[in-house]
Amino acid sequence: MEFWKLNMLKGMYLRSGCDWHYDPFNEDTIERYLETRNLRPADVQSLPLHLYLGYCEWFQRQKGIQVLPSVVLRLDYADETPPFFEAVLQSGGTITAKNVVRAGLPLL
Question: Which residues does the chain have with pLDDT short of 70?
Answer without folding.
Answer: 103-108
